[in-house]
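Ticket #4471: structure output looks truncated?

Reporter: J.K.
Steps to reproduce: submitted the chain below (68 residues) through the standard prediction queue, then opened the result file.
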Amino acid sequence: MKNGLEKWRKEIIEVSNNVYKVTLTHELGSIIEQTGHELELIEKEVELSAMKMNKEIDEKIKTHNKWL
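Returned output as attached by the reporter:
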């Protein structure tokens, strides 16, 4: 995976002729999924979403650790 996405596992399935489902699963259980015809485009979109979610997860962990 790309930098920043090491904690994510990617799965690509061709669900129909030229229709792909891309799923990213975070090691903590969050899932991002998209289905479409343009594989490269949907891969970029789910990766961008995962990067945004990484920031949210990091902020929540930082906030949680303040209280420990």
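Triage note (M.O.): checked the attachment and the full token line is present. The longest helix spans residues 39-66.
Status: closed, working as intended.
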